[in-house]
Design brief:
This protein is mainly α and 239 residues long. The protein is 55% helix and 0% strand. It holds the Pfam family Cytochrom_C.
């Protein structure tokens, strides 16, 4: 057997092993998401169905202040559930639900919602970043330029252009309800919510006044009006 033939066989064995590992990982991810879907739609024990408040497609219920979950990062969603359960993020509705979930169920629910079509059209929103907003538009200015007289950086520096979210620590905020966004800023300002990575949000919210919180919350809540989300399109098709 020649050296080249031996090398070729080893290469093929390596490729086959890698393919099997990839298939196994995908199968596990799919199984986890299926388990999460069951919990999201039907609940589990003391944990009521997530869809009751966050919608069948994870699109949220803006009028009631319930945020969308569809398309948010799995790591971010899992961390929020752990924070609800531990009390780091106090909430009378979410705390008992999160406490009723096992660690595996938390991973499953997070995996399920992360795989749903995003509640926003990230590509369109990223392309419409308001680099030079009108000075009189406080919300747009804070979102895209910040207020350096108060050491408040632009929201898009961490949450991405158009507020589409970046990585596992900075969720999408475009299209979230103004009520929800304002409530979170107020919770950080009042130290009623864990400040997150590097305590960034606690420090930023502490420097904002209520008018700024309202303005920037309104700004982000209205962004998807310029680009209908895939989730909204799917929901409309079912009617």
């Amino acid at each position: 057997m020649t050296t080249n033939l031996i090398r070729e066989r080893r290469r093929l064995y390596s490729l086959a092993a890698a393919s099997l590992l990839a298939l196994g990982a995908q199968a596990h991810a799919d199984s986890l998401a299926d388990q999460g879907k069951a919990i999201a739609t039907s609940g589990s024990g003391a944990a009521v169905a997530c869809a009751s408040c966050h919608g069948a497609q994870g699109q949220g219920m803006a009028a009631a202040g319930f945020p969308y979950l569809a398309g948010q990062g799995a790591d971010y969603l899992a961390r929020q559930l752990h924070d609800f359960a531990s009390g780091k993020r106090p909430n009378p509705i979410m705390q008992p639900i999160a406490k009723a979930l096992s660690a595996e169920q938390v991973k499953a629910v997070a995996a399920y919602f992360s795989q749903l079509p995003p509640a926003i059209d990230a590509k369109a929103l990223a392309g419409r970043a308001d680099t030079y907003p009108p000075k009189g538009d406080t919300g747009a200015w804070l979102a895209n330029r910040g207020d350096w007289s108060r050491d408040i950086p632009a929201c898009v520096q961490c949450h991405g252009p158009g507020g589409i979210g970046v990585g596992k620590d900075f969720p999408a905020i475009a299209g979230q309800s103004a009520q929800y966004l304002h409530n979170q800023l107020a919770a950080w300002k009042d130290k009623k919510r864990d400040p997150g990575p590097l305590a960034l949000m606690g420090d930023i919210a502490a420097r904002m006044d209520d008018a700024q919180m309202t303005a920037v919350s309104d700004y982000f809540s209205k962004l998807p009006a310029a680009a209908q989300s895939p989730a909204a399109q799917a929901q409309g098709a079912q009617k």
